[in-house]
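Re: that chain you flagged

S.,

Sorry for the slow reply, it's been a week of failed gels. I finally had a moment to sit down with the sequence you sent. For the record, here it is as I used it:
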Amino acid sequence: MRRRSFITLLGGAAASWPITARAQQGERMRRIGVLMNASSDDADGQARIVAFVQALQELGWTDRRNARIDVRWGAGDAERYHRYAVELVALEPDVILAPTSGVVATLQRTTRTVPIVFTSVIDPVGAGFVANLARPGGNMTGFAAFEYGLSGKWLALLKEIAPDIRRAAVLRDPAIASGIGQLAAIQAVAPSLGVELTPLDLRRANELEHAVAEFARVPNGGVIVTAGPAANVHREQINALMVRHRLPTVYPFRYYVESGGLVGYGPDIIGEYRPAAAYVDRILRGEKPANLPVQTPTKYELVINLKTAKSLGLEVPPSLLARADEVIE
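Prediction finished late last night. Pasting the structure tokens below so you have them in one place:
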């Protein structure tokens, strides 16, 4: 569902958060904060919120009747994360939903008491968000995106779709610990695949354009985009750069491929928001985050964009197409 559907679902109030809400007589109004890593006009971010709100409704939490939902859009900006985290905590919510490590880390610095349900976090134990997956032990629990080992499969996938690859640039965010972890997992498998790696730090858009152009000067190159807020915010620019420089590229999530990327392999991020709503429901009904185990993906999806493959002059192997969960034509 896109932005129009999201606005309709919430009664046209999406542009003026927080929503004015009144509980029916005798019901206690519960407050749910949401701090998103995307911008308010991001279609994928809107789809995540739609999935979350719909799941809440199915569980008995209806906006303007017995729940008030306060959404803030961080747009991958650390200063916004901090400002909105302080703002949301000041509203005294019963629980906060937060995607990605950057958002969760900001909230952790802001509160140690408000229950937080996270999604799309890589290595929540290593990041210090929970004591362990089975018993988180604090005010946080949620859904991990994937283990670092998945990152090595991106390089294998790149070699499968473009066998002539000898060099691979790895776009990673040096500001987050998971950027280092993902690169390390890729480095572990690179020698066996005969690929030389070039880490490219993803900080500023103008720096990225220059770095990619320099890398593309030498033939037989490809790119892996690791998971992180900076890549998410700049994904359309990244996709355009890869096509312009004819670089086969593997991405960590479906939405990169939907917006023009070549191939993506990773968990269903939007799908995490429905069970996240179930955790929010359980917390609203009295359970503690400390006792709710962190869940990890049970399935990963392979998505291929044939239009992009054609523009890059690639013929996708039939064996790879047969394994794909979705082929975009």
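What I noticed first: Residues 177-193 form the longest helix (17 residues).

Talk soon,
D.
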